[in-house]
Amino acid sequence: MRKTSARSRALRRRIKSLGPWFHNLHLPDGTQTLPDHFLGGDFPTFKWREVESSIPKRLKDWRVLDVGCNAGFYSFELARRGASVVGIDVDPHYLAQARWACGELGLEDRVEFRQMEVYEIARSSEKFDLVWFMGVFYHLRYPLLALDLLAQRTAKLMMFQTLTLPGDSVYRPKADYPIEERTPLLETGWPKMAFIEHRFSSDPTNWWVANHAAVEAMLRSSGLRVKSRPGHEIYLCEPDRRTRGHRSLYASQLASITSVMSAASSKS
């Protein structure tokens, strides 16, 4: 009993030294990294509960990319289903948490963590069966570039989540408009994003808040089809083979960016 207590105290000290935390992880002995989360409830567990039934229970032989993995909560859940997971994040603080927790959970053989920007995915031709893209899009200065790059690397599914404006209305536009006819752009359901110049929720990295119509339109324009909406602001997508060959309007720009990133990688 004393050994268990001493182990728990040592874990709590280690958790404190690695803080502050954003993910509340449940360690094998029952210790939690952030039991009193400021978002209320057990986060991200309550978000996971919304989406877990939407993906296969068995992910053996699946390759997964967890974008903005933070302390690794989703990486660990997907690894427990048998997936081989690559978790990426720009913040070394969160990656230190994730690597430590990975060892505590005994998942080192299934999860790899890399410090990198999402845009750096352009340097690789690696494909993933599942791309986990939750809670990152609205933090990006160039969000559509990231979505385009990730859509290209999505073989089966993408779980997408972003901060959104209130309402689900969708305005059905015509295929084209003359340049002077701009009034429809003011319609409530026209695809649009609000730009945050300063701060939103005290966070200077909250750049964009899209409406529902814009989320679906951007996903379609990146070659994805929305299969379902398993939770609030969450979209489960799959590659739309019918549209992937019709994206020539921006394909050359994306190819140029990928070429530049690849060249930079080869020189480093």
Shape: globular
* Structural category: alpha/beta
Tally of extended strands?
9
What is the average per-residue confidence, as pLDDT, rounded to a whole number?
92
If helices are DSSP runs of H or I spanning 4 or more residues, what is the number of helices?
7
Query: What is the CA-atom radius of gyration, in angstroms?
Result: 20 Å
CATH superfamily: Vaccinia Virus protein VP39
Q: Can you describe this structure?
A:
The chain has seven helices and nine strands; from the N terminus they run ααβαβαββαβββαββα. The protein is globular, with a radius of gyration of 20 Å. It has helices spanning 2-18, 45-51, 73-80, 92-105, 143-152, 212-221, 248-267, and strands spanning 63-67, 84-89, 111-115, 128-134, 154-161, 193-195, 208-210, 224-231, 234-239. The strands form two sheets. The protein has a seven-stranded mixed sheet with strand order 3-2-1-4-5-9-8, sandwiched between helices. It has a two-stranded antiparallel ribbon with strand order 6-7. The N and C termini lie far apart (53 Å). It has one domain: 3-Layer(aba) Sandwich (Rossmann fold), CATH 3.40.50. Strand 8 and strand 9 form a beta hairpin. The longest helix is centred in the last third of the chain and has 20 residues, at 248-267. It is α/β, with parallel strands linked by helices.
